[in-house]
Amino acid sequence: MTMLGDRQQLSYIASQAADARLNLELETEGMTLNIGPQHPATHGTLRIIARLDGEQVVWAEPACGYMHRGYEKLAEVRTFPQVTTLVNRIDWLGSFANEVPFILAAEKLMGIEVPTRAQYIRTILFELSRIANVSLFLGDLGVQLGAITPVFLAFRDREYVLNLIESATGGRFHPNFDRIGGLKDDLPAGWIDETRAVMKKLRNFCDQIEDLLFGNEIFQSRTRGIGVIPRDVALQYGLSGANLRASGVDWDLRRDQSLPMMWNKADWKVWTHPDGDSFARCWVRLQETRESTKIVDQLLGSIPAGPVMAKVPKIIKVPEGEAWVSTENPLGEMGYYVVSRGDLGPFRVKIRSASFNNISITPWLLRGVYVPDIVTILASLYFILGDIDR
Amino acid sequence: MVLNLPSEKVKPLSSTSETATLVVDTAREELLASIKNSLGEAVVDSHLKPGDDLWILVRTDAWQASLKKLRDVHSFDYFCFLSAIDWMPSPYGRGEDDPTEPAPERDTTIRPGYAGGETRIQVFVRVVNSTTHIGLNVKADVDDTTPVIDSLISVYAGANWHEREAHEMFGIDFAGHSDLRNMYLPVDFEGYPLRKDFPLLARMVKPWPGIVDVEPLPGGDSSDATNDGDES
User: Residue B201: inside a domain, yes or no?
Assistant: First the structure.
């Protein structure tokens, strides 16, 4: 165990002790509990099979595959511009963010430089999808614990962001707006002022959620010290995004990687939390939503004039090569390993989605927890089914 | 898709290899040298794209040991993903053949990618150093007739699900993995869907509409619609 905070250490020891207790106590008759595939806490159709000993989980395993659509195979028979339509549907709450790494990978192989204006708008839309995605998480979190109000607030305020995305791209959920070489279109008139007003509302929303939920005693006692993931375990399992930063790893791909995007033009902070428990993961996401609104606000003021599309041939052939591009998506690190053979379509696309890795830790994490905590732990890990199954 | 095409002639795109030669990437060069030094014989080949990424190909029998060394000596502690590639071009092309016609002959010569290799199927894994944020792609050949390679679970616990996925999609056996159940497909599913010789049936049973409905766009230049992409 390396570099654990005191509190993280204590809660880890507590969870290990619960584990050990399981083995010491007299064996009772086990029971298998099936959660899902249709269950409000599963965000889609994730099925969890848990073997219980009394109230404690002895063994748990998610059963995936209820939504496997085979995008890696489908991408092989499509042209490069057509693939964005598919990848839009991976993480359906922050769709625009899915398109970006794929388009960046294609641009990297082709050696295209995207106009600065397009890079700015891309970054803004990317952050807006993060806000649309994570604000729903913040609301949904309350529902998992029996508090219904936050989800109404979340749906109300998320609507403003979706309206913005819709007015800029034409699609509320699946924009399909990113193109190799830039963007499909420029921003509509008045969009920038409208976005500023919405960002203010979203910051109020974050404050409200913090008051309602994070300061709530029940919420704290249900999440603090529950589902602790130590730093090295998080890294081994390839956890990413807020789940990794909540375990004390100061790593954000927006800051620590040079991509033709405009995050480094804004002044913002990467939040980490030393605890690694459910509360830490939720808290980091709340702070990230705030930072996102700040990024959007700052970038809105500095969008340069110019074209939004580089000079790109009408029929796109991508030169031979292999490229890996990943970005810090709302759910974590989302990356595409694209292999091209100089053809119209990719030869192979490996989609590395964040939720697949984030959920692969659950068999380890759920051992020894109590049944009601399954729901809070899964909610705090935050996954989207389409992002696990692809 | 309609692109905002400029009126003047399109400039040829500069290829990445041209621009990349100008970049000097000392960090990755030093890393590659020290990896070659510590892994020794196990590294078969390597490929470095300056300022972008690093690839190495390791011997199949040294797969697990190499990654253990990479984790312990070079602190590649973050497991990003594990997957496989089938390097044989698909005999079905992009699934746009007319089913009423005899299938055209296609070149299915196997050509490996970066860092080379000799077999049709390769396993590759991406690991990242969580302090320097430099990533490394490690590939290994997998024998065509008996596709077996050591499991990485003892090195990175997160490899578990990725290996299950590679097993059901490519038919690779991971020695030491105790639980290679299917993740997505039914238990009795036959074949390995991501292998290139596995046909995409949805494209086989019905002609692809893009092929049968070729007609010029209204108001568009008809020569553009049938152009097969020579201008790029």
Answer: yes
Asked if residue B121 is part of any domain, the answer here is yes
Give the DSSP letter of residue A71. H
Q: Please give the helix or strand (H or E) that residue A62 lies within, else none.
A: strand A56-63
Residue A385 belongs to some domain of the structure? no
| Tens-digit pLDDT profile for residues B145-155 | 888 899 988 89
- How far apart, in whole angstroms, are the C-alpha atoms of residue A201 and residue A196? 9
In a domain, B3, yes or no: no
Residue (of B182, B142, B167) closest to B59 by Cα position:
B142
Number of domains in chain A: 1
CB atoms within 10 A of CB A298: 15
Residue A363: asked if its preceding bond is cis (omega within 30°), the reply is no
Neighbours of A150 (CB within 10 A): 22
The bridge status of strand A31-35 relative to strand A56-63 is unpaired
Burial class (CB within 10 angstroms; exposed 0-12, middle 13-18, buried 19+) of A211 = exposed
Please report, for residues A55, A266, A295, A299, the alpha-carbon distance to residue A262 in angstroms, rounded to integers and kept in the order given: 49, 7, 9, 8
Residue B202 inside a domain? The answer is: yes
What is the CATH number for A182?
1.10.645.10
pTM: predicted TM-score of the whole model, two decimal places: 0.83
Closest Cβ opposite residue B130 in set A110, A235, A309 = A235
Ranges A38-47, B39-48, B183-192, B196-205: which has the least confidence: A38-47
User: Hunting for tokens 């009772």 — which residue is that?
Assistant: A28
In three-state form (DSSP H/G/I as H, E/B as E, the rest C), the secondary structure along A147-208 is CCHHHHHHHHHHHHHHHHHHHHHCCCCCCCCEECCEECCCCCCCHHHHHHHHHHHHHHHHHH
Neighbours of B107 (CB within 10 A): 7
A179 to chain B, any CB pair closer than 8 A? The answer is: yes
**Are the CB atoms for A255 and A270 separated by under 8 Å?**
yes
**Cβ neighbour number for residue A192 with a 10 Å cutoff:** 13
Q: What is the ipTM of this complex?
A: 0.82
Say whether residue A341 is in contact with chain B using an 8 A CB cutoff.
yes
pLDDT in tens, A240-271: 889 999 998 888 888 888 888 888 888 889 99
Nearest to A144 by CA among A305, A375, A320: A375
Structure tokens that stand for A250 in this block = 């100061």
Q: What is the DSSP letter of A370?
A: B
Residues of B (37-66) whose Cβ lies below 8 Å from A: 52-53, 55
User: A363 with A59: CB under 8 angstroms?
Assistant: yes
Report the gap between the CA of A33 and the closest CA in chain B (Å). Answer: 20
Read off the CATH number of the domain in which B63 is found.
3.30.460.80
Chain B nearest CA to A276, separation (Å): 17
Residues sharing a CB contact under 8 Å with residue A60, sequence separation 6 or more, in sequence order:
A48, A49, A50, A51, A362, A363, A366, A367, A374
| Cα B179 to Cα A281, B167, B183, distances in angstroms | 30, 11, 11
Confidence grade of residue A39 (pLDDT, cut at 50, 70, 90): low
Answer whether residue A275 is part of any domain: yes
Residue A152 lies in a domain: yes
Residue numbers of the domain that contains B197: 25-91+107-212
Which residues are CB-contacts of B135 (< 8 A; sequence separation ≥ 6)?
A324, B53, B54, B80, B126, B127, B128, B129
The first and second tokens of residue A266, run together, are: 């804004």
Q: Closest to A77 (Cβ–Cβ): which among B6, B55, B95?
A: B95
Question: Does residue A6 fall inside a structural domain?
Answer: no
